[in-house]
Amino acid sequence: MRRLRNVKIVATLGPASNDYAMIRALFEAGADVFRLNMSHGTHADIAARHAIIRKVEADLDRPIGILADLQGPKLRVGTFANGSEELIEGAKFRMDLSAAPGDVNRVQLPHPEIFAALEPGASLLVNDGKIRLEVVDCGKDYANCTVTVGGTISNRKGVNVPDVVLPLAALSEKDRGDLEFACELGVDWLALSFVQRPEDVIEARGLAKGRAAILSKIEKPAAVKAYDAILQVSDGIMVARGDLGVELPVTSVPPIQKRLVRGARAAAKPVIVATQMLESMIESPVPTRAEVSDVATAIYEGADAVMLSAESAAGKYPIEAVTTMNNVAMSVEKDPTYRQIIDASRVVRRETIADGIVSAAREIAEATNIKAIVCFSQSGSTVNLVSRERPKVPIIALTPLMSTARRSALIWGAHCVITEPQDRFKGAVLAAVKAARDHGFAGEEDMIVLTAGVPFNVKGTTNILRVAPCDERLISRVDPE
Fold it and tell me: Where is the signal peptide (predicted)?
């Protein structure tokens, strides 16, 4: 099963997509990676969906990536005696540690770490920013505020604190348990919510112990400021526009998105653009024109993947949402302007031998009638480097490791194929030719470019570039054993 596009699609699973028939249909419609949201469902629910994905993978003989999205620390107010209250602009309102039921004047905020970090003038956003409070004065157990944007406040609504770096770990106790469960289950990627600093990522990496790749969700102003440092210690990035658009002015999100995507591309690390991409398709079988344009913009920017959340997890039209995203991607990538934008935004790096090899592979492929770039990769790093080049020809990622193939399912353009371990170069060439022909990328009369590393099966040794014919008889005449 070969995709006719390069950008990947991440589909979130949930109540609307939790059985074999639906998950298989979503994959056949275009989903490349499935997201398991650890905020919803029990471990038993998550394990059941994971098992179904692996069954679909085995039945269709195609590697499928699985992303477990950790909830992160959730900050919420307490409860109200009347269930809710109406806050009026200009009124005074207090948040404190008292467990007494709230009223129109105050409510519990059971997070002393917030009070420890607050300063007068800081903002508190409640219920996704629908209510805004400005701190007038504060102490270790309270914050007296002025209501700057009023509205209805009710039990356990979420609180965002955009102006300060909170002394909170990105991993709550629930997250630690979920992380260990997901790693033992065998997910391929772990998404970290509410990352503020690179140390958050380093902590998660230590707990994962190499069992899953770490993807940092950029959704806090602090994370935007520390982006370069966070990117350096992450395996991938998610532009999580939901909370980002709550904690920052919504008008700042598009330029931030562009900067984050370009930074991740330059670092050869996959980047997902997420949140509200086809939001109306939760209830409607067709998207709005603005949503289609939003998806297209992310693809024009060169994002590795675009993501569906509630559209595929709880919406009425999950298959239609994936199909729409697939069709938008195919339409964009056929547009000559797309290639002009991708080429213009390419960052050429030749700091290492591997950088030079993959850059040369792209240039050779695009200057001649080469049908595909085939890269052998043990860890997936070479696949990332080839993908960073955003070549015009397909990328075939050959690896003996299913774990690498599954992680690479998130990478722009990568068509992942499991192959036997190789210890001789001729065998590698023959395996590359077989993959290109068997998967419909090239015929007997065609040529491919092969990148590999000697010695084989050692991480970070990409040092060979070979142009090979797809006729095994010609290979046998030229390549020694």
Answer: none
CB 108 within 8 A of CB 77: yes
In this predicted model, what pLDDT tens digit does every residue of 5-55 receive, in sequence order?
Answer: 999 999 999 999 999 999 999 999 999 999 999 998 899 999 999 999 999
Q: Which CATH number fits domain 353-478: 3.90.220.20, 1.10.3720.10, 3.40.1380.20, 1.10.530.10?
A: 3.40.1380.20
Query: How long, in residues, is the chain?
Result: 481
For the record, the structure tokens of 202 come out as 């380093």
Identify the bridge partners of residue 380 per DSSP, sorted by sequence position: none
Question: What residues does 396 pair with on adjacent strands?
Answer: 374, 415
What does R_g of the chain's alpha carbons equal in angstroms?
A: 24
Give the alpha-carbon dihedral of 165, 170, 172, 174, to 10 degrees.
150
Alpha carbons 268 and 424: distance in angstroms, whole number: 28
Q: pLDDT tens, 64-107?
A: 999 999 999 889 999 999 999 999 999 999 999 999 999 999 99
Supply the pLDDT for residue 479: 56
Task: Give residue-wise pLDDT tens across range 104-128.
Answer: 999 999 999 899 999 999 999 999 8
What does pLDDT average to over the chain?
94
Can you tell me which residue has the tokens 């609307």? 16
- How far apart CA 332 and CA 34 sit, in angstroms, is 23
377, containing H or E segment: none
Tell me the CATH number of domain 8-72+171-332, given options 3.40.50.920, 3.40.50.20, 3.20.20.60, 3.40.1350.10.
3.20.20.60
Give the residue among 149, 105, 100, 89 at the shortest CA–CA distance from 124. Answer: 149
CATH of region 84-160: 2.40.33.10
The full set of domain ranges for the chain reads 8-72+171-332, 84-160, 353-478
pLDDT tier at 168 (50, 70, 90 boundaries)? confident
Query: pLDDT digit string (tens) for 282-322?
Result: 999 999 999 999 999 999 999 999 999 999 999 999 999 99
State the greatest distance between any 2 C-alpha atoms of the chain, in Å, as a whole number: 86
